[in-house]
C-alpha cells in the first residue's frame, strides 16, 4: 500500500489527510467473470461451497453491470454480461445497485437474498485487498429480516411417504444417505467411490469450510450402496444418466463409465419435483406443475430435529451436524411437529383414554 503525499491545504485551513492507495498484488483480470474465478481459487473457497458462490456471484454480475438478473429457469441458459471488474468503481453504480437489489429482494426469500449479499461482499472485499477495485457499491444495502420457518423438519409420516415414492436407485440412495447422515447435500454429492468405507458405514467428505470430515449412515443406505456402485472402484458416487459433456473437470467424471457427477442443481430439481404432492397432501395431481416440493436441506434439518427429540446429547448433535457452535443448533434442538402433536394429544381432556 502506498501513501500519496499531501499536496495542499483544504478549505478553512484544515490539512488534507493523505489518502491510502492500494497497490495491486497482481494484474487485474480482464473481466468480472475471470475475477470471480480468481476469487474462488485464490480465497480458498472449498469445492463444496464454490458452486453456490459462483451462482450467487453470477447473479450479482448482472446487477453490477446495471441490469436485473434473469429470474428462475431463464437464468440457466442466459449468458452473463461481460464487463471489466474495474467497472465496479463506477460512482453511479451504488444507487443503481440498491434499486436492483431491492427489486430482487421483493421477489426472493430473505434467506437467499441475505446469502447472496454476504457472498458478494466477501468477493468485493477480496478484490479490494488485491488492489483491483477501490470501493464497495453494496454499502448501504441492508440485509432483509428473515423470520424463522418452524416447519422445516418433516413429520414422521412425510419421511415414511418419501421412502415409498417410485424413484430410481440413485435418488433412493441419495435421499437415504442425506437423512441418515444428516449431512449437507454438497457433502454427499461430492463423495467419490474411493471415499467410502462400507463396512464401517461411513465416508470421507469435504465439509463446509474445506475441512475433511467423516459422515456416517445407517442400514438403509448400506443396503442400497452396493447396487448403486455396481462394481465401480473410483470416481463420483452419484452420476448423471449420460456421458459427461466436453470440458467437464476430470474430477467430476467417472473414469469407468464416462458419466458426470450429479450436480446439486439437478439433484435439487429431482427432489423438489418428486415431493410436490407429498408437500401438498390436499392438492390435486392435476395441479402438480403449480406446486412447490421440498428442498434437499430439509432432510438434514429433519434428521437433526428428530435426533434432538430422541434425546441425543448436544456434543453428539454438534458432531453429527459438524457445526462449530452450540448456538447454530438452536434451529434444530426444538421439538418438531410430531413431538408437539403427541404432547397436545396426551393432554387432551376430551380424548378417549385406554382403561
Summarize the structure.
42% of the residues lie in helices and 7% in strands.
Provide the descriptors you would attach to this structure in a database record.
single chain, 355 residues, mainly alpha, three-stranded antiparallel sheet, two-stranded antiparallel sheet, 13 helices, 7 strands, 42% helix, disordered N terminus
Shape: globular
Strand content bin: 5-15%
Number of helical elements: 13
Sequence of strands across the biggest β-sheet: 3-4-5
Number of strands: 7
Range of helix content:
40-55%
Structural class: mainly alpha
Q: From N to C, what is the helix and strand string?
A: EEHHHHHHHEEEHEEHHHHH
pLDDT averaged residue by residue = 85
Calculate the terminal CA-CA distance, rounded to whole Å.
82 Å
pLDDT < 50 runs, ≥5 residues: 1-14, 16-20
What is the CA-based Rg, rounded?
25 Å
Q: Major sheet: size, sense and barrel closure?
A: 3 strands, antiparallel
Describe this structure in words.
The chain is mainly alpha-helical and about 350 residues long. It is about 40% helix and about 5% strand. The protein contains 13 helices and seven strands. The strands form three sheets. The chain has a three-stranded antiparallel sheet with strand order 3-4-5, with helices on one face. A hairpin with a 4-residue loop joins strand 3 (about 195) and strand 4 (about 200-205). The longest helix is centred in the middle third of the chain and has 21 residues, at about 110-130. The protein is globular. The N and C termini lie far apart (about 80 Å).
